[in-house]
Write a structure and sequence with these properties.
The structure is a homodimer of 347-residue chains. The first copy, chain A, is α/β, with parallel strands linked by helices and 347 residues long. Chain A has helices spanning 34-42, 49-67, 72-86, 93-108, 113-142, 169-179, 196-207, 220-225, 251-260, 291-294, 336-346, and strands at 5-8, 13-17, 28-31, 151-155, 185-189, 211-215, 231-234, 238-240, 245-248, 265-268, 274-275, 295-296, 299-300, 307-308, 313-316, 323-326, 329-332. The first copy, chain A, has eleven helices and 17 strands. β14 of chain A pairs parallel with β6 of chain B.
């Protein structure tokens, strides 16, 4: 199965898919240098919050090996510098979280330097495995709503490429695909302007032998009307305690159209996606550079001076969402109390 | 104002915009050769049923001049050959209709050859003018529903470039824009896969100084929710007597999303678009080559072997349509009787 990042035990190296080359070429970066991992994060050869968290963790393990330190203090000095090096994207909390976690483990260890290095290798792998388990858990919970033979429509990329291995929506699809002997199909929506559906989702599901059909964003009404789709499963960048879901632009239009056709609309996201603070009215949607719309593959598709509006995300209200599939279980929305309860459990 | 095709009285030539170069370059073809006009139709330098009808009519006028015939019989022989030459796209009824009309006029004329040539020049111009008047009429009727300050969302290109001058949706926008002193705005939806909104609609409204914003197909829900749009006006490839509208893929999704936001959804089309024969269940939607989705500007945007589904049109049921703006007046739908009545009037 397709894996975004992994630790190679034999050579003590990190191997990751170069996402800047996808989908036309599948190239891997294999490195024993934490600086090379830092570069991969910086230039987005690896992206997606869980994936770069794992990359930073494994990068710290590489640094521990590279340090060749003889004393714990020397090792810690080297690791602290490596943590700074690996934090190349300031807004990505997963980077700081992962490097801090690795540092704490090193500081707390009472063993010799060689043992601490081994502990760090184990911890780096563990960060990745936790993400894999979380996704697996989401996929297993989803089996209560995804039936054999389902055709699932999704938008953007909430697959392996944003996580370590299975993805969020990716886990829902893959776990069901395995459970039902391959009897699961996917419709991937292109997702203009950045086309993550066409570039990434189609690619990674095809890699895993899952029957995947690409459609454009405007075709969703037609495929619903023709009875081609059994349910929608989309990811989430943020879920408010009210059940409002912020996700890639196009999600809201899809949810409205699904509701019109009485097609179940699920959101797959770990509980850590839930934001207990912000109110729907206070959500600010990022507006991105208009050239994302005007230019494709380096060429203008419209008049270069065209005025564009390019919101990167949209907000779907709970009344359009059938349920949220989390790593802790299925939450029907609107169900503020249930979100609060589950959230309390993991606090 | 922007004009797709026109007759130059001074030089007795036809001038048309080369649509294959749009929107990155505005080049015109100016010719006195009916064979060159035939080529323009064939390679789609000019396209859209009303526009190619006018091109064929003017092509016949050019042929009459080119013939240098001394007798009416010689002229008719030349014109019959020219009609065959101009009929380069077999399914385009407007071509046959226009060339036949020109031939009938020549056959019926009792004047000398020189006079017949002048009559044909007049008739070719008249075919174009009839289209302009029909569009103008649509635009005037629309004033009863389009108010000053309206922001109008449209999909695909139902503008000048598909007709001789104003367009269908184009007329609604332009007549209101003129009437309200420029106080009309447009949101053009990109319209994947072929991006006619981005390539053509944006271009021609910008040419006329109309404030136009480009968005992608997935953004419609967001712009509705944000209150940016006052109404939608879309074209139609065919309108059934039941009020079902067949139009560019994405129209149906837009209509559902507009209904959800209680935004008026108008269809602008001449009465000649109404098909009194076909039932909704019998409509076959053309499925086009998947490379329209896979390739943009000559480059793959996805895995080349990706399976795609590419319906070119969709069907919007009457309950999602506020009214149809025709050249004969506004028809509220569902209102089968009204469609029948108006249709009877023009039979």
């Amino acid at each position: 199965m397709f894996r975004t990042i992994e630790w190679l035990d034999d050579t003590r190296e990190v191997k990751l898919v170069d996402q800047t080359k996808l989908p036309l070429a599948t190239k891997h970066i294999v490195t024993s240098s934490h600086e090379r991992v830092a570069k991969s994060i910086k230039i987005m050869e690896i992206r997606g919050a869980p994936a770069i968290g794992a990359a930073a963790g494994m990068g710290m393990a590489l640094a521990a090996i590279e340090s060749k330190a003889k004393t714990k203090n020397n090792l810690l000095d080297f690791l602290r510098k490596a943590a700074v090096t690996l934090n190349t994207r300031p807004t990505a909390v997963n980077l700081t979280w992962a490097t801090t976690r690795m540092l704490r483990v090193a500081e707390a260890a009472e063993d010799g330097v060689d043992q601490i290095v081994e502990i760090l290798v184990g911890e780096g792998k563990e960060i990745a495995e936790e993400d894999v388990r979380m996704c697996q858990s989401m996929g297993k919970h989803a089996l209560s709503v995804i039936e054999s033979g389902f055709v699932i429509q999704t938008i953007c990329n909430a697959g392996s490429l944003a996580t370590v291995h299975l993805g969020t929506v990716g886990a829902v699809v893959r776990v069901a695909h395995e459970k039902y002997g391959g009897n699961i199909e996917v419709y991937a929506v292109e997702t203009r302007p950045r086309q993550q559906g066409a570039r990434l989702t189609v690619f990674e599901f095809m890699e895993d032998g899952i029957d995947t059909t690409l459609i454009t964003d405007g075709m969703i009404g037609t495929v619903f009307r023709e009875g081609r789709i059994d349910c929608c499963v989309v990811g989430a960048d943020r879920i408010l305690k009210t059940g409002h879901v912020i996700n890639k632009i196009g999600t809201y239009t899809m949810a409205i159209t699904a509701k019109f056709h009485k097609i179940p609309f699920y959101v797959a996201a770990p509980m850590s996606t839930i934001d207990m603070e912000t109110n729907p009215a206070d959500v600010v949607i990022e507006e991105r550079d208009g050239d994302e719309i005007r230019i494709i593959n380096g060429k203008y598709i419209t008049v270069p001076t065209t005025k564009v509006y390019n919101p990167a995300f949209d907000m779907t209200p709970p009344e359009l969402i059938t349920a949220i599939i989390t790593d802790k279980g299925i939450v029907e929305v609107p169900n503020k109390r249930k979100i609060l309860e589950i959230h309390k459990k993991i606090d």
